Amino acid sequence: MAGLFGDGAVRSAREIGADGGVLSDEDLFPVLPALRDLLPHGALQRGSVVSASGWNLLCLALAAGPVLAGAWCTIAGIPEFGVAAAADAGVDPARLLLVPDLGPNWPQVVASLLDGCELVVLRPPDRPAAHLRRKLEAAVRRYRAVLLVAGDWEGSQVRLRIAEQEWAGIGAGHGRLRARLAQVVADGRGGWSRSRGRWLWLPGPDGAIASADDDAAPMAGWPGLPRAGTG
Amino acid sequence: MTGAQDRQRRVVVVRCPAWRPSSQETGQPDGPAARAFERVVSAVEEFCPRIEVLRPGICAFGARGPARYFDGEPALARKVAEAVAGLGYECGVGIADGLFAALLASRDGLPGPRQAPSAGAWPPERPGTQRLDTGRPDTGRLDSGRSDTGRLDTGPVRIVPPGGTPAYLATRSVTVLGEPELADLLVRLGIRTLGEFAAVPVSQVGNRFGEQGLLAHRLSRGLDPRPLVARPPAADLSVRAEFDPPAEQSERAVFAAKALAGRMHALLAASGLACVRVQVQVVCHDGTEITRLWRHDGLLSEFAVAERVRWQLDGWESGAGSAGTPGPGGSGGPGEDGIQGGGISLLRLSPDQLVRDQGRQLGLWGDAVVSDRVARAAVRVQAMLGHDAVRQPMLAGGRGPADQAVLVPFGDLPPTWPAPDGQPPGQPGVRPLDRPWPGRIPPPAPAAVYPVPRPARVIDGSGAPVTVTGRGHVSAEPARLSVAGALPLAITAWTGPWPVTERWWDPAHACRKARFQLVTADGGAWLAFVKDGQWLIEASYD
């Protein structure tokens, strides 16, 4: 099984670099191949703000690419961050800083973190005032970092969310959670204003995060997994 | 130090068997035992200001000056032994030419039938009881009184006369070298004593036994493998800056700290040393003083040291402003009026726990090097929110999702395992990953693991709460889930119960629960458990 689904998943930064050649462009952070179609330039752009709908595996998958490529990442304001899930997604825990509680003066804390880490995953404790939001966006640009917001952010370049999802492997009183098919929808500003969706294994039966657009056949083997639709 | 090679120095070694080497190897680098030895060191410091602590439990100093002052080596040794016994610790004092012989002599000095034990098999008695009752002054006097009447001349003191070291060592077994492999080889070659080993020509030793053998050979001949690196008195490698007029703003002190750290690092590098910790002492104009120790490990840049000074000052100021702010770990009470109370008049950085500089060490966790930039940001945030606010995750073994990671405050060493028995809950050690942990939750791992499980309600089709019997049967199919008081959601798929019984042998930590995986109509997937009839959500697979 691993062979079937593992092809699209990425295992190391080297593979990302060799595959897409995006590492050469220093304005971009590579992402997992499954997420490339959902992002402008197929990568996370330095100095940009990307938001996902709350803390979930999608958010983790977005963070995985840059960390695999050697970036340091801070998980800010997310006390329930699942370390084991991050490690399964290929994130080296030794490259993570966790700041579970940001305190009342959180924009200043986040600005300090942006200075040190190329990637900050943030769930804002409250809705920031417009001037604080613009200040943080300026800090993101100044430090050439990426702010990945697990929640709403008005000025984000791209918004990603899970529109539909279906778990496989679990029934009524039997089996266990094995895999999830999720339709991820991205929309944003500018040329990205038209929303687009992709079906992803989030995660796949082998634990990898991979594109599910192409393989219809393997799903027959998984009980309780009706094909919900195509992307 | 200098000039130690021409003639072997007379060395005094004070050995307290209460601190065992094994507790150092397995344990905490600055645990209570190691810190308690500071009392002994300061008692010995009364006789000679330059003490080298070899490890907690053993310290050494040059004998020549103090012996002249205290009227001869026997008198000096007796006084030292009395001073240490006065603190309530058993000790042996050895004096000989060179450190190695003095170490062996100090071992001889210990009471009891302990002839040349190997380094690892150190006396089994624990310091606990002795330390406890002699910690009070009256019993301490009793203890030293007993020593006075008895065996001080013969007992705890062993003096090898000047020039007598080779003869003293000659009859010792090669095992005392503390190199089991080499000793094994030597014995098989028919070389059983240090005297026989010393008779082998140096060139032959170098050819056959390499660097390690040469070192052992030097020891056998009564030579020191290295000159005694004296533990410098506090002022030796420390650097200080005075402010006149006193610095009203912390910025000025922090700025000076950067330059000071550079000077301290240059001093350390010039002596080939690195420090495990750095002590930052801030003295105010009105005499208030805050002193804190920061872990250094030879890893901190000048900037990082300066940041720690800033952190210390900021923690102090905010501690003065709002008493609730937790100061970073360490002693030193916050002053009432902060820097405004007169300004900083003195800043001193002292390297603590000197070690030989082994070059720059890689990161403590995995092979990722904590870059200066990341460390700076982390420390700055620690300055704002407290030491525990910034953490680094480590994977750990365990059954539940919360057990599978340990969060270590940035800059700290990971906690050791096994420790949960003695430790308060909430500070678990890093359980090993390579054990099977039967009954652990199956993959995939949940993306969200709640630090505190969220209360939930699970009801069946008729609206009654779902329960699990003692035999692991579910009362009815779960139909609806409500997490933390939110609107109930229909359960579309579920599995369980997976019974877990952990630490049943330990009533205080025993835990019996049944796990479930639940999928709700909105597509969410949850890891829940039932404990004592209460449903709790411990993780979400979102």
What does this structure look like?
The complex is a heterodimer of chains A (231) and B (542). Chain A is 24% helix and 27% strand. The longest helix of chain A has 13 residues, at 130-142. In chain A, α5 (106-116) runs parallel beside α6. Chain A has 231 residues and is of the alpha/beta class. Chain A has helices at 2-6, 13-20, 57-68, 83-88, 106-116, 130-142, and strands at 28-30, 43-45, 49-52, 73-76, 96-99, 119-122, 146-150, 158-170, 175-188, 196-201, 210-211. Chain A folds into 2 domains: 2-150, 3-Layer(aba) Sandwich (Rossmann fold), CATH 3.40.50.300; 161-221, no CATH class. Chain A has a 9-stranded mixed sheet with strand order 5-4-6-7-3-8-9-10-11, with helices on both faces. Chain A has a two-stranded antiparallel ribbon with strand order 1-2. With 542 residues, chain B is α+β, with helices and mostly antiparallel strands. Chain B contains 14 helices and 17 strands. In chain B, strands 12-13-14-15-16-17 form a 6-stranded antiparallel beta barrel. In chain B, β15 and β16 (525-531) form a beta hairpin. In chain B, α12 runs antiparallel to α13 and α13 runs parallel beside α14 (372-385). The radius of gyration of chain B is 30 Å and the shape is extended. At the A-B interface, α3, α4, β5, α5 and β8 of A face α14, β10, β12 and β14 of B.
